[in-house]
């Protein structure tokens, strides 16, 4: 019989495709960088802006309507294990991307610290940096995208 105290955490022994829905959701570090508006050039390079989805509560870095987000914001991307090969658009700090790339979780991740606020307190979230949109963007919305381009979502150290 194996001693349960010697078991490695699920994210170290399971592939993303083997995780339960609860395990999958718990991998999210709560940074909300995926809620930022992003631009992609013709070569596939992704650029982050400081503009966040109108459903984001930037103080706690959570969606205000998580269960209905895709109905309310059709462009909202739902991360699934089937999409692992396309996670390169996520910031390098994203736990899903890190696990997919075999890099493990960062020291500030809530699953490591046991503290649900550790991503925010470590400086790896959008808290205090994102501008939450008042409404969804559409083709009629006039935005000076260059004025909102930022590099901080790509930083791997705070």
In short:
This protein has 158 residues and is an alpha+beta fold. The chain contains seven helices and six strands, in the order H-H-E-E-E-E-H-H-H-H-E-H-E.
Q: Main sheet?
A: 4 strands, mixed
Determine the fraction of residues in helical runs and give it as a percent range: 10-25%
- On the 0 to 100 scale, the average pLDDT is 90
Supply the number of structural domains.
1
Question: Globular, elongated, flat, extended or rod-shaped: what is the shape?
Answer: globular
Continuous helix count: 7
N-to-C terminal Cα separation, in Å? Answer: 43 Å
Order of helices and strands: HHEEEEHHHHEHE
Structural category: alpha+beta
Poorly predicted segments: none
Rg from alpha-carbon coordinates: 17 Å
What's the total count of β strands?
6
Q: What percentage of the residues does DSSP assign to strands (E)?
A: 5-15%
What distinguishing features does this structure have?
globular, alpha+beta, two-stranded antiparallel sheet, single chain, 158 residues, 6 strands
Protein architecture, described:
With 158 residues, the protein is of the alpha+beta class. The protein has one domain. Helix content is 21%, strand content 13%. The chain contains seven helices and six strands; from the N terminus they run ααββββααααβαβ. The strands form two sheets. Strands 1, 2, 5 and 6 form a four-stranded mixed beta sheet that branches. The chain has a two-stranded antiparallel sheet with strand order 3-4. A hairpin with a 5-residue loop joins β1 and β2. The mean pLDDT is 90.
């Amino acid at each position: 019989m194996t001693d349960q105290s010697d078991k490695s955490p699920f994210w170290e022994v399971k592939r993303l495709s083997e995780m339960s829905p609860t395990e999958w959701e718990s991998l999210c570090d709560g940074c909300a960088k995926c809620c930022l508006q992003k631009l992609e050039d013709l070569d596939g390079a992704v650029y982050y802006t400081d503009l966040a989805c109108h459903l984001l509560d930037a103080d706690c870095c959570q969606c205000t309507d998580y269960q209905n987000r895709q109905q309310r914001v059709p462009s909202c991307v739902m991360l699934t294990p089937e999409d692992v090969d396309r996670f390169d658009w996520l910031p390098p700090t994203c736990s899903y991307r890190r696990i997919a790339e075999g890099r493990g979780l960062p020291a500030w991740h809530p699953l490591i610290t046991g503290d649900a606020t550790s991503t925010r307190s470590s400086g790896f979230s959008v808290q205090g940096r994102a501008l939450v949109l008042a409404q969804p963007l559409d083709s009629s919305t006039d935005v000076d995208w260059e004025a909102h381009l930022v590099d901080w979502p790509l930083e791997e150290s705070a």
